[in-house]
């Protein structure tokens, strides 16, 4: 049977990964996760300083051809060797990760609904909605502690690219979502409803992607 593909989008720091982890633990062993971030383009031709100045919040920053090709293979029941991205180096690492096919495939990333070819492959589209001030506070903390950045660099990047690209690409893509979840994985009511819905689809009690009026 074709796996159920769940897309999880939302701004940086909104809580996408937290929601993804909640779903993975709710459907233990039955979920494959594909992070759009792992498909940032390889930029070996640039120096580290040049890579620091790139715009990582526009759709062109990603190798969407590779993502859709690998996603289709996963949906078709094949394992994939997914690239692994190194945020500290602003480049794709040499390592890959084996992802086995599962009944549920989660695709997560800030811009997945801004890309028709990814959006159209998602049976359930979730958008995690969190206020911008909360997101930037979380991002400063995470980027300094986990991604090797200074507070000054996070501030500069946020004002130069992250915020304008969020307003141009991420926020409008919210319209394509089936469900908007305030605060993502911290929203226990939404999580509970979502888990029940996914379970019913796995049980075959619902059409794969039912639409109003259909
Ligand atoms: N509902 C929440 N309440 C408090 N902190 C949260 C909540 N959701 C996520 N966080 C924290 O915010 C940070 C960013 O969350 P994460 O899920 O990684 O966001 P994203 O994947 O959208 O960038 C993490 O440190 C996470 O623990
Ligand atoms: O080299 C890079 C690649 C990406 N980023 C930033 O990452 C976020 C997306 O990750 P979230 O986990 O959704 O926050 C995006 O806003 C990019 O700006 C980076 O800083 N450097």
- The fourth-level CATH homologous superfamily is P-loop containing nucleotide triphosphate hydrolases
The whole-number mean of residue pLDDT values reads 94
- Overall geometry comes to globular
Gross CATH architecture: 3-Layer(aba) Sandwich
What is the H/E order? EHEHHEEEHEHHEH
Radius of gyration: 17 Å
Tell me the count of domains. 1
The largest pleated sheet is described as:
5 strands, parallel
Low-confidence stretches: none
- Give the amount of beta strand, in percent: 15-25%
Q: Which CATH C-level class is it?
A: Alpha Beta
Distance between the first and last residues' Cα: 21 Å
| Number of helices, where a helix is a run of at least 4 consecutive DSSP H or I residues | 7
Secondary structure class reads alpha/beta
Main location: cytoplasm
Catalytic activity: cytidine + ATP = CMP + ADP + H(+); uridine + ATP = UMP + ADP + H(+)
Family: Belongs to the uridine kinase family.
Pfam families: PRK (PF00485)
Question: Quick summary of this structure?
Answer:
The protein has helices spanning 16-26, 48-52, 64-75, 116-119, 132-146, 151-173, 188-202; strands spanning 4-10, 31-35, 80-86, 91-99, 104-108, 124-129, 179-182.
What does this structure look like?
With 214 residues, this protein is of the alpha/beta class. The protein has one domain: 3-Layer(aba) Sandwich (Rossmann fold), CATH 3.40.50. It is built from seven helices and seven strands; from the N terminus they run βαβααβββαβααβα. It has helices at residues 16-26, 48-52, 64-75, 116-119, 132-146, 151-173, 188-202; strands at 4-10, 31-35, 80-86, 91-99, 104-108, 124-129, 179-182. A hairpin with a 4-residue loop joins β3 and β4. α5 (132-146) packs across α6. It is globular and about 50 Å long. Bound molecules: adenosine-5'-diphosphate and the ligand O=c1ccn([C@@H]2O[C@H](COP(=O)(O)O)[C@@H](O)[C@H]2O)c(=O)[nH]1. Adenosine-5'-diphosphate is lined by residues 10, 12-18, 138, 142, 183-186.
């Amino acid at each position: 049977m074709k796996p159920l593909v769940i897309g999880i989008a939302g701004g940086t720091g909104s809580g996408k990964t937290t929601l993804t982890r909640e779903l993975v633990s709710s459907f233990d062993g039955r979920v494959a996760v594909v992070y759009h971030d792992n498909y940032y383009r390889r930029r070996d031709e640039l120096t580290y300083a040049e890579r620091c100045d790139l715009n990582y919040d526009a759709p062109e920053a990603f190798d969407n051809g590779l993502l859709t090709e690998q996603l289709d293979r996963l949906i078709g029941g094949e394992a994939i060797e997914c690239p692994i991205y190194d945020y500290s180096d602003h480049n794709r690492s040499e390592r890959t990760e084996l992802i086995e096919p599962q009944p549920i495939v989660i695709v997560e990333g800030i811009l997945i609904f801004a890309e028709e070819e990814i959006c159209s492959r998602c049976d359930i589209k979730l958008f995690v909605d969190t206020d911008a001030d909360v997101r930037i506070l979380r991002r400063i903390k995470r980027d300094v502690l986990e991604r090797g950045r200074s507070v000054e660099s996070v501030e500069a990047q946020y004002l130069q690219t992250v915020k304008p690209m969020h307003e141009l690409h991420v926020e409008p893509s919210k319209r394509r979502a089936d469900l908007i979840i305030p605060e993502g994985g911290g929203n226990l009511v939404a999580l509970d409803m979502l888990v029940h819905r996914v379970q019913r689809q796995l049980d075959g009690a619902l059409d794969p992607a039912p639409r109003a009026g259909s």
